Amino acid sequence: VRLQASGGGLVQAGGSLRLSCAASLRTFRRYIVGWFRQAPGKEREFVAAINWSDGSTEYAGSVKGRFTISRELAKNTVYLQMNSLKPEDTAVYYCAARTEVTAQYGYWGQGTLVTVSS
Q: Among residues of the chain, what percentage have pLDDT more than 70?
């Protein structure tokens, strides 16, 4: 599985961005796809995840109600819609995948930088 994240950029506080994560192979059927982020000087943290099979989702408390994760089956793509962005959302965002039966995310894409100005 190869993952490609895109959609980062510079946005003002209160604005929106949509990140995309595309897979090179059609192997999402039994996978969980997640978004993580790493801010400068901080550890990487979980943001959101979606079960490719049934669409169930999970969010970190810091983004719940502002971010929405979704999938588009035909395009093998997972999206992260980010609304009401805050300066503290500034980070490099990564998409990752794991199988439903493993706890660790074993597949990672390159990061995409999101910068939120105040």
A: 96
Six token digits for residue 20? 């995309």
CB 37 within 8 A of CB 93: yes
Would you say residue 97 has pLDDT above 80? Answer: yes
Nearest to 110 by CA among 32, 34, 4, 1: 4
Q: In 10 A of CB 15, how many CB atoms?
A: 14
Segment 52-79 shows an average pLDDT of: 95
Q: What's the CA gap between 65 and 83, in Å, rounded?
A: 9
Residue appearing with tokens 């805050």:
86
Measured between alpha carbons, how far is residue 95 from residues 37, 106, 117 in Å? 9, 11, 23
Phi, psi of 23 (to 5 degrees): -100, 145
